[in-house]
Amino acid sequence: MVLVPSELANRFPRKVAGQFSDGIVDHVRILLATTNQGKIAEVREIMSGRLIEVAGLIDSASTEEIETGSTFAENALLKAKHYHRTLGLPTVTDDSGLEVEALGGIPGIYSARYGIYSARYGGPGMGDAGRIARLLDEMKDLSDQCRGARFICAAGIVWEGGEKVFLDEVQGVILKEARGGNGFGYDPVFFYEPLGKTFAELTSSEKAKVSHRGRAFRRLAGWLTDSGLLDTPRSDDRIVATAD
Ligand code: ITT
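Above: the input record for the complex with inosine 5'-triphosphate. Below: its predicted structure, written as tokens.
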């Protein structure tokens, strides 16, 4: 479902604006700017039961050229500033990725682009399977004791009066084979020891409770509630997500 007021749609770039036609509401307060459907589903889950709702919005624009920073926090704010400038709305973004200890933190901030330059793993149009294949190849000689990794999430927000970013992480181990069909990205090889399952074997609500994203966005949501940014909330306030 697309939930955006008509006057806001007019301020989007042409390629995006055309995609707002099938739904209109009056009160959009915060935009969740991401092109990643997996993130949208998870942030919606994390925010469920709160004042803030997350709605899907189709946006074919890539965030890759905006992500020129050298940290997750920088990139989260760069994306949020870009969409805030375009839309004039308080804008929330997620920059996240996987860091493998024995690889010195790789793929890190390049998690989405990992393997993109190699035809062997799918090239520019590569998907999650190509990224995972490259990671497992890089790690094939590492023993079970040397497969520690962490997911990191930077949840950024930019509004008229300022910017803020909330970082959090979760520790795990990279398996030698993929397991499970839920989630997205590297979830099938990210084994979460306390639950004895990969992230792809967790339900969305189980993952939301323990994930880097769940932790970072709950902190952001708590801050939002206290910040005054949502003063005079309305029952139909929405976070609107962009995704392709
Ligand atoms: P946006 O920039 O549009 O939000 P993106 O997918 O390009 O989407 P990032 O640059 O933040 O986002 O890259 C994050 C990548 O890290 C993502 O594509 C996955 O490959 C990986 N990743 C992040 N969180 C993950 C999670 O919860 N489970 C599995 N993989 C994850």
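Notes for the reader.
The longest strand covers residues 162-174.
The two ends are 13 Å apart (CA to CA).
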